[in-house]
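User: These chains co-purify. Model them together.
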Amino acid sequence: MTTKRNLGYGYAVLGAIALSGTAASAAEQITFVSQGGAYQQAQTVAILDPSAKKLGITINQDSIPDAWPAIKTQVGSGKPIWDVVDTPTGYCLRGGEQGLIEKLDFSKIPNAAAMPEAYRSPYSISYEFYSSVLAYSQKTFPKDAPNSWIDFWDVKKFPGRRALRNHPIATLEAALMADGVAPDKLYPLDVDRAFKKLEEIKPNITVWWTSGAQSAQLLNDGEVDMEMAWNGRVSAVAKEGAKVSFTYNQGILQSTSLCILKGAPNLETAVKFLNEAVDPVHQANLPLHIDYGPGNPKAFETNVIKPERATQLPSEPANAAKQALMSYAWWSSPAGEAAEKRWASFMQK
Amino acid sequence: MLALVSPALLVILALIVLPVGWLAWQSIYHDGFTLENYRRVFTEDIYWRSFALTFEISLAVTVVALLLGYPVAYLANSVPKGWSILILSLVVLPFWTSVLVRAYAWLALLQRTGVINQFLRYLDVISEPLALVHNTFGTVVATVHILLPFMVLPLYATMQKIPGDLMQAGASLGASPSLTFVRVFLPLSLPGVLAGCTMVFVLCLGFYITPELLGGGRTVMVSMLVSRNVELYNQFGAASAVAVVLLLSVLLIFFAVSRFISLDRILGQK
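Assistant: Joint model of the two components:
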């Protein structure tokens, strides 16, 4: 069996099944939704096609940059057409609390049950990792580059223009680390302290970026000398020849997760797929195609990822140890949501 | 008669009245009737700041567009036909380029390592790059570029209808060209000025991509508040309330202007 990007085909099959009444004998299938682009292409080759083949199912694909509003609408209408979504972990948790996401039975998902507990929740399984890192221009800092958020905040020792993401997630964590909080002692976030620390650096922030493409462009064009950026964006710019680099030290390790829509049309097949998608070998395939780390750390034990490649990835155990692991549970709690709202007034002051 | 226009009315109903009505409903109904969304829009600092900033930027854009657009329209009106077509094409041409492309083009021109800063440094006019973008200045520059046709075209249309005889009459009565301009041409072109300014101002109120890309995160215009309320906070009610207030401001502006000139004229019908 193969995966198909054409959702229309999926509808046609669904229709045929309904008409012929032979649902039991028909091939199993699911509809899988991700964020599109190079990332979805990479996971199609690395994970989706091999999983579909191994399970003998059809995976219909759809893509959407931001799945959250669609999840709300689909489940809210009572007739979801998607089964599995690959989306920022926070949405799976928030969705779980609001009754939009299925609770997972990990006894049916042994591959995930073997993963570290911090990498899963009752509603989600970490699928791939990326990191919000401190990136800098090697032209401005040929040696003695900034290596921590303390350095980023130190405008005397490291003069230069700076950018941060126009979003509280990861930015508050960075501010607290700049204020001396250890990466493993961040949660629950001391929001007041984080905003106070951000006020300190605010006058020195040239740009508050809103999209990953924008952050890459800022660094590539030399518009800023250092910034918070996603590791994959920085390495992509570096590959094209820009003199830029980044450090995993004090990076904020973030993930997208797989979760299943409440009342998904193909629930059982979806659970089977979840187990297959976090299979260590399939997971190890992903970084061969794109600069993201596997969600299942066992992937590093498969010998599929060469050691020199592994050291570049955010979730490689030694790299992960240098970083803070984002707590999506905290961000989807009332305190987290309040911090998100406070961001808007912080920006406009 | 009603039978003839009813298909059109249905389209308007389906595409405009229903969505806007739904939007307005969202802003006052969430698990029961509530004015909470409007209370926030009118009392919370960030909303006030955004509305104030949006009106300030729109005003600045309108003034700059008028100062740039008037001479262009005047020139297009006073040269032979072939030339005026060329001038107007140059005004309208950028119109067919995507707003996103133009925003990035301005970024390439204005940023620290951009063409303008490098040229000025080459000439030794400046030693440090100027902060031309990622602020309100950059936003205004790019927005003016995008909205200029909406200023020039109504101005040109109005100037076209000013009879040339009047200028000659002024001259034959002994007035200097500048006096004829100030006393005759300028007053007669004012409806065009009002129409152009209204169009530019109103369109600018809803700008989104340009301030997002060129404002550096600090120029938070009202449209950005709407998008953030939906994307970040998932609060459709708050977003709708902001949108409704913006829509009412626009209608109020149109109503005020319509006391002076007919709306047909602003919308380029006559």
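The mean pLDDT of chain B is 90.
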